[in-house]
Structure formats: C-alpha cells, structure tokens
Write a structure and sequence with these properties.
The complex is a heterodimer of chains A (401) and B (98).
Chain A: E1 13-17, H1 19-29, E2 34-37, H2 44-55, E3 62-65, H3 69-81, E4 86-90, H4 92-107, E5 113-118, H5 132-136, E6 143-146, H6 150-165, E7 173-178, E8 187-191, H7 194-201, H8 227-239, H9 241-256, E9 263-266, E10 273-278, H10 280-294, E11 299-304, E12 306-308, H11 312-319, E13 324-329, H12 340-350, E14 357-362, H13 372-388, E15 395-396
Parallel strand pairs in A: 2-3, 2-4, 4-5, 5-7, 6-7, 10-11, 10-13, 13-14, 14-15
Antiparallel strand pairs in A: 1-8, 6-12, 9-11
Helix pairs in contact in A: 1-2, 1-6, 3-4, 10-13, 11-12
Chain B: E1 31-35, H1 41-45, H2 50-54, E2 60-65, E3 68-73, H3 83-87, E4 93-97
Antiparallel strand pairs in B: 1-4, 2-3
Bound molecules: iron/sulfur cluster (SF4) (2 copies).
Chain lengths: 401, 98
C-alpha cells in the first residue's frame, strides 16, 4: 500500500475543462506507456489532446495510430501483455468494432483503461448520447464506471488504473461519460500535481509479462477441459473488485478529500420514491428532487457509478425501504422484458419479502434531451402506478407517440 | 490430471515453454494408421519417409538398427488424422477404425 498525503490546496491547479480534456489530462498524469486509438466522435478530443502532449514532449507515451478500433484494442492487449500501462478511448460504432477484443482484454486479464464517451449506435447514424454502446458490452468482463461530472471523470481515470492493476483484480476498466453532455461541456476541474498522481499509482507491476528471457504463451487454446476453470478465475476476480475499489478510493480520499462510492445516495433516508439512474441524468434528478422536496414530496436519488460489478447487495439495503424505485435509463434492450439497468435493480430486489415497485423509463435515446420535466413525468407516473399497485415492465418517455 | 481453477496459471497462460510433449493427442484418435512392410520404401531401402515428414505430431518412427529398417507409430501422439496414409506414394498405410 502506498503512503499518500493530502495534497495542499495551493498545489492544485483549477481549470475549466471538457470531460474529454479532463480525461486526457488524467491519462497524461498517469504516465501511460502506450495509447492506441482510432478517432471517433465524441471521444476524439481525448486522443487529440493527448497527441498534443506527445508532440510537445510532455509525455513519454508511445501512441499507436491504428487503422480501426479492432486494431486499437488489439494493440492495447499486446502492449499490456508486456507490462505497459495502457489506455484507449472510443464510442458507439468504435466500441462495437472493438467487441471481439474487449472479451480478449478481459479474459486475458489485461488492466487496460478504456474511456468511453457514450454515444448511440447506428442506424440512423447519430453522434449523440445514450448508453446502448457500453450497455451492450456489459458482459464483456470489463469493470464499468459511469461519471456525472468532468471532475469525477478525471478522478475516476486515475483510480481506474490502480483498481485494474491490482493483482487481486487484473481486469480492464471502462470509464464512461455522456457523449457531448459531458465530453464537450466545460466544467471546473481541480487537477492534482503530477507527482501526487504518480506517487498514488506507482509504476505498474505486472503479475506476469511477455519477456524473451522468460518465455510464456498468453491467450492459448482451452477447450472443454479447462475453459470453464479460467472463467471461474475471471468471475472471482470480478467479485474482488468492490474490496479493491474501496481501498483505492480511501487512499484517493486521503489525497484529495473526494470520494464517490460505487453509487451516490441523495436525500434517500425517508424517500418513498427513489429515482435510480446514472451519468448526467443523475445531476438532473438531484435538481428535480430538491424541487419536489420543497413541495413536501418524499423523493430521493440513487446515482449508480459502478454498473459492473453491479453492487446488488449494497443497493438492496438502500432501496428496500422505499415504496417505489423509478429507473431512468438511456437504452432499449429490444425484445427484452425490461432494460439493462432495471433488470439489475429488479434482480437485486427480488429476494426481499416485501419489495418496492420498480418502474422503468427509457429516456434520451440518440441524445434526446432529458429535461427535469421528463424526470418529473416519470415520478408522477410512478405515483399513479403505486396507487394502482402495478406498473408496466417498462415504457418510453420523451418520444412523440 | 484435471486441476481446479486455483491450481492453474491465470488466464490460461502457459508458463513453461516447450510443453507440447505433455499433451497426448493420441486421445483424439478415432482412426488408426496401419502400416504394411511389404511395399514400404523405408523398409525396402531406407528411403522415402514422406509419412514421417508430413506427420504433424511426430508420431511416425523410422528406425534403423544393425543395417535393418523398422517402422512404428507412437500412439501416445498419433491423433489419427490420416495425413500419412494420404501422402504415402505406395499405399502402404491404411486407416482403420479404432
Ligand atoms: S495418422 Fe496423422 S498423426 Fe497419426 S501417424 Fe499418421 S500423420 Fe501422424
Ligand atoms: S510414405 Fe509410405 S512408403 Fe514412404 S516411408 Fe512412409 S509408409 Fe513407407
């Protein structure tokens, strides 16, 4: 365990930054060895900014400008295999093209950090935000953390390396921000001194690396006789994430005073209805809750951060006393009885003898704005369903129908 | 032989190079090559050896002892692929069901 000290305020640099720029700066300070990426909106600024750092000689990173995202993740796996600290960034179709190698990165236990600026999938082609891209990759074996602010994106990238590279984990991490809403929006970001970040992270110590003097083979064949055992290992590594996350966040808090948790709770103590969402709608939901509380309504928010591994047990304790949980999610899982986020919430609550009613609202597809009124509409519907004693498995909100 | 998840290296990494000997591919065999000395060029005059060259598992043994030629298979590794039978120019190898 590294010894970290509180960074004095006069050493902190405050700047107005977009989410993408905040991530690029975090990557720079994390002293990554290799970045392999292919440009795609709205992630592009991350790599553009980083390329400037390289061109200016501010970092020693080797940037590999590959011909596709499939190659980007492949190059990342190769670099990570020799023991490098590695990052990449993508969105939407780019993430889709990485698909095959996402699974390789996770199951070969490569601690790569992948920044995702969440964007809708084609067709019709659309560059704006929803969560269909990274939700689709939820079973790939990546840890997934969703951020609400540029500061949180910056902080999370730094912590992501430490979680990923921990020998109890050794799994890749997706750090997700809402495309355009956060990726291109300027906010106040407090940047740590680079020495503090580097002391916090240290140099990556690979558990095992490709080395000509000690040859090993990575990613070989395993069939009916051993494949399942390797999946067991991977599953157990995922199960160890919460403990490592907690340890890393405690150290980070010592250094910065900031802590986010696997989820954030907001005015939930006596709440009858808990709004459950993540990323930028989390901020909107908190504003809605403040307004509704002024009218005497007992509402609160749980803003999820860690979607994988899903903190089912901890959430159950927070949600169990509410009358209803209103889920707002920017994804439709076509043909599914409900949608990725609500499915997890329902599973988490199912074993309770008395469980809250769960409503599931699909919002904001293709970057459709999610104003406070959309959240209010969902809360109002949830109240009606509570009265009726039953709710539909899901419905869309904010679409002309 | 079969180990638990916590008794094997992480992610299937092969930590000892050159360990293919440990993998006895003979277990895969459904058809077995059967060799006839009468027509075989190796037995006749120590030539040919195409089966030995082509066998992907080094399972053909061409043996020379006291000026005499012998022929055998290593059934620990012969996986029954039939390549040797296919390559033999004299039809000296037949594949038979195990
Ligand atoms: S059947 Fe295949 S493995 Fe067996 S000896 Fe012939 S070539 Fe080799
Ligand atoms: S290929 Fe046929 S003829 Fe040639 S050595 Fe082998 S068995 Fe004999």
């Amino acid at each position: 365990m590294t010894v970290v000290e509180r960074v004095p305020t006069d050493k902190v640099v405050v700047e107005g930054m977009t989410g993408d720029a905040a991530i690029a700066h975090a990557l720079k300070q994390c002293d990554i060895d290799v970045l392999a990426a292919y440009p795609i909106t709205p992630q592009t600024i991350i790599v553009e900014d980083f390329q400037k750092f390289v061109a200016n000689g501010e970092v020693k990173t080797r940037v590999i400008p590959v011909e596709s995202e499939h190659s980007a993740m492949s190059a990342c796996v190769g670099a990570s295999a020799v023991g490098a600290r590695v990052a990449t960034a993508t969105a939407s179709a780019g993430l889709a093209l990485m698909w095959e190698i996402l699974y390789c990165a996770a199951s070969m236990r490569m601690p790569i950090v992948l920044a995702v600026a969440n964007r809708a999938l084609s067709a019709p082609i659309n560059i704006h935000n929803d969560w269909s891209d990274s939700y689709g990759a939820r079973d790939s074996g990546f840890i997934q953390i969703y951020c609400q602010s540029c500061q949180e994106a910056y902080d999370t990238v730094i912590m992501a390396f430490k979680i990923a590279e921990d020998h109890d984990v050794l799994l890749p991490v997706m750090v997700c921000i809402d495309g355009f809403i956060l990726s291109h929006n300027v906010e106040r970001v407090e940047m740590l001194p680079t020495e503090a970040v580097q002391q916090f992270l240290g140099v990556r110590k690979p558990a095992i690396a490709l080395d000509p003097d000690n040859p090993v083979t990575m990613g070989p064949l395993a069939l009916t006789d051993y494949y399942f055992e390797f999946k067991e290992q991977q599953d157990r590594a995922m199960a160890r994430v919460p403990e490592v996350f907690e340890r890393v966040e405690s150290e980070f808090e010592k250094m910065t005073g900031r802590r986010y948790g696997r989820f954030e709770t907001y005015r939930v103590e006596d709440a009858d209805i808990i709004i459950f969402t993540h990323s930028t709608p989390g901020g909107t939901a908190k504003a809605v809750v403040d307004a509704l509380r002024e009218r005497g309504e007992k509402v609160g928010v749980v803003r999820l951060r860690m979607f994988r591994p899903f903190p089912a047990e901890a959430l159950r304790e927070v949600l169990r006393n509410a009358k209803a949980v209103a889920v707002f999610e920017k994804c439709r899982s076509f043909g599914a009885p409900s949608n990725p986020l609500a499915l997890e919430v329902r599973t988490a609550l199912y074993d309770l003898d008395e469980r809250p009613l769960v409503t599931d609202f699909v919002i904001g597809l293709g970057g459709r704005d999610v104003p406070p009124s959309t959240i209010v509409e969902g809360v109002e519907k949830t109240k009606e369903y509570l009265k009726a004693g039953r709710a539909p498995l899901y419905e869309t909100l904010g679409v002309r129908k | 032989m079969s180990k638990r998840f916590d008794e094997i290296p992480m992610a299937g990494i092969i930590i000892e190079p050159g360990n293919a000997m440990e993998y006895k591919t003979g277990g895969w065999r459904a058809m077995r090559p059967v060799h006839t000395d009468e027509t075989c060029l190796w037995i006749k005059n120590g030539t040919c050896g195409l089966c030995w060259i082509y066998c992907p598992d080094n399972a053909v043994r061409l043996i020379e002892e006291n000026g005499k030629y012998r022929y055998e298979y290593d059934y620990d590794y012969c996986k029954g692929c039939g390549i040797c039978a296919n390559q033999c120019p004299t039809g000296s190898i037949k594949m038979e069901s195990e």
